[in-house]
């Protein structure tokens, strides 16, 4: 492969589109005629203003966000959002609904509870090791918000359709599937995504917030933990993670101009995931762990007949240029993370490798 790059199935940080990496490389020493690298220009310069504003404009176009939504950039990862959300929106005497679909939802719930906030876990798939997305959930109509994890990176499940919360604002952790498909953003009060899975490098978390949510933020919070601070200053109250935001800008440009938008991206992702799942379904050797109607388009979790074979599989794959196929340390097994940047060609090569491995070891 070009530049000796491997097929990268890492869960995060993860593969980025090659044209994006090439553009970064080409412009790295002299960004846009500035005579400086993007890592050297001031965040108060016109150069950076253009970068962040273009990243925002492209995000809004791709997700079809109306003027009620703002696109913001935070540090501290998706994990800081776990604590900021209850801190900013939940007052004494109020409560929020949470759906527990795995490791990251569990952490989000915990961060609300340690602040003494009132949390209702209205559904959980823990009874079957988080292998499915709950249905027919008894949402509370007086909840301030309903929190879901749209894609469960570790367990390999994804909401196929978002739940109807009858006007209660949805808040979604979309860290591992933002921009993988088109959806209606209007029921969402807030969407957040650590960039390092599907839209950029580590170091920045994208937050999409609806105006009515900003009105709920109390003045009493520390500046850096308030959504209103970032909203008032176009995410530049303090120094933002400039390089990470620049990379997001290029990924959004790639999505718009090379891929052709989210409908097209979704079509490609459905084909990629479909090819991999249907290959596994066609035999007995590889077993996808998520229930069929809850399978993720982004993180394909699977088992082989034994742990020894799983270890051998991961090792042999690495020797053949396929990286990152080991499952998360908390669940074991195997996982192929096939984010937007993973090409159909990488899936085809992986399936070929899996067939060969099965022949030799099955
Ligand atoms: C990776 C991940 C996180 C944690 O993100 P950080 O940026 O490391 O804090 C949270 N939620 C989901 C769904 C993830 O995949």
TrEMBL record:
Coiled coil: none annotated. L-glutamate binds at residue 44. Pyridoxal 5'-phosphate binds at residues 78-79, 104, 153, 173, 196, 238-239. It is found in: Cytoplasm. SUPFAM superfamilies: PLP-dependent transferases. It catalyses: O-phospho-L-serine + 2-oxoglutarate = 3-phosphooxypyruvate + L-glutamate; 4-(phosphooxy)-L-threonine + 2-oxoglutarate = (R)-3-hydroxy-2-oxo-4-phosphooxybutanoate + L-glutamate. GO terms for molecular function: O-phospho-L-serine:2-oxoglutarate aminotransferase activity; pyridoxal phosphate binding. Residues 6-350 form the Aminotransferase class V domain. InterPro entries: Aminotrans_V_dom, Pser_aminoTfrase, PyrdxlP-dep_Trfase, PyrdxlP-dep_Trfase_major, PyrdxlP-dep_Trfase_small. Pfam families: Aminotran_5 (PF00266). Its cofactor is pyridoxal 5'-phosphate. Its EC number is 2.6.1.52. Keywords: Amino-acid biosynthesis, Aminotransferase, Cytoplasm, Pyridoxal phosphate, Pyridoxine biosynthesis, Serine biosynthesis, Transferase. It comes from the Bacteria. GO terms for cellular component: cytoplasm. Binds 1 pyridoxal phosphate per subunit. Catalyzes the reversible conversion of 3-phosphohydroxypyruvate to phosphoserine and of 3-hydroxy-2-oxo-4-phosphonooxybutanoate to phosphohydroxythreonine. Homodimer. Belongs to the class-V pyridoxal-phosphate-dependent aminotransferase family. SerC subfamily. This is Phosphoserine aminotransferase. It comes from Desulfonema magnum. The gene is serC.
